[in-house]
Structure formats: structure tokens, C-alpha cells
Amino acid sequence: MLKYILLLALIFLTGCHSIFDTALEKKIDEQSRQTQLLLTKVAQLEAAQKENNKLISDYLSLTKNELQQNKQKKELLSQQLPTKKQVIGQIETIYLNPPKINLPARIDTGATSSSIHAINIQPFERNGKDWIKFDIVYEDKTYHVETKLIKYIKVVQSSTKTAQKRAVVELELTMGKIVQNTLFTVTDRSHMSYPVLIGRNALKDLLVVDVAKKNTLTPSNKKEP
């Protein structure tokens, strides 16, 4: 009897061991399958990433080439198309602000700087800064100006060959359609025919002077103060 019991126990344990081995094998197979699926996904993602990198590289290369071509086209056009400059005469009516008036001016390409006729020129200090005040007299009217003093320069007059110290101010200059801030020396020009001299610093690359012409610009219609 005991022999049969032991035999049955042995058979039972053998069966349990077999069942355990089968379950373990299934689990290992499932993990192996999941690992293989994961590796496949990783390979697919890497392939997709390589394709995206290639597309991005191709796009950047194309964009760079297009930008370079556009730049070359613009440079070629700028070389082919001449810059259109405004032509003015040797005598023009200009507008100055301050004092917000039209004044006749002589345009002189031989002069380095621009100059304006003024009297009662007095430097002074305002809020710790250097300022200057002066009067402009034109057509029996006096226009008082107070503005910042930019600097002093020495100007050598061709007639006397002597250096003269002049104050420099910045005024808004309007000539036709061109409006720009321009440096002017302030001095007594009462012996000159015109109260304003426009030199090369105001002409720059914007204006061309035709000495055979006069008064080509339409005076500004800005109102006086």
C-alpha cells in the first residue's frame, strides 16, 4: 500500500514539474516575442528618423541655395540699375527747422560743410549741457533759435586764409522730397548774397547739382511759427 502511495506522489510531483516548466517556457517565449516587437519598433523609428534627417538636410540645402541665388540676383540688379538721384540747381529754396522757414540757399559742391547766417550768437548752458542761441533775420523778420551746441570747428576762408572758430548745430533740412538732419556752422554771412550755404555734407549721395539750373525745387508749404 505504501508503495502505491509513494508511486502516486512521484507521478504527481513529476506532473507539477512538467506543468511548471511549460508555463515558464511560455513566459520566456512571450518575453522573447515582446522583445522582438520592441526591437522592430526601434528599427522602424531609426529608419523614420534617418528619413526625416535627410528631408531636413535637403530642405536646408535648397533654402540656402535659393537665398544665395536671390542675393546674387539682387546684387546683379543693383549693378545694372543706376541709382536715381534728385537733380537740383545751384540756387534753391530750402526749409530749415528750426526756425521753420523757407530760405534761399546757394548749393556749393566745393564746400565741405553747410553754413547759415546768424547774428547775436551766444553760447549758454542748459541742464548742464552746452546750448547756443542766435537770431536769423530774413525779409525784415527776426527768428530766434535755441538749440544744442554740437561742437566748434575751425574754418579757413579762401579769401583771407585765416582760420575762424565757428559753432556747429544740427538742423532739420528739407530740399524737395528729401528731409534730413544736417550739421550747419553758425556765422555772420551778411556779406554773402545768400543766407544759407549748402555743402557736400548735405548733398551726400542723394542730390546732384546742375549749375546751369536754378530754383528747381518747390518751396515747402510748412507754415511758419
UniProtKB/TrEMBL annotation:
<dbReference type="InterPro" id="IPR008503">
    <property type="entry name" value="Asp_endopeptidase"/>
</dbReference>
<protein>
    <recommendedName>
        <fullName>Retropepsin-like aspartic endopeptidase domain-containing protein</fullName>
    </recommendedName>
</protein>
<dbReference type="InterPro" id="IPR021109">
    <property type="entry name" value="Peptidase_aspartic_dom_sf"/>
</dbReference>
<feature type="domain" description="Retropepsin-like aspartic endopeptidase">
    <location>
        <begin position="87"/>
        <end position="216"/>
    </location>
</feature>
<keyword id="KW-0175">Coiled coil</keyword>
<dbReference type="Pfam" id="PF05618">
    <property type="entry name" value="Zn_protease"/>
</dbReference>
<feature type="coiled-coil region">
    <location>
        <begin position="45"/>
        <end position="80"/>
    </location>
</feature>
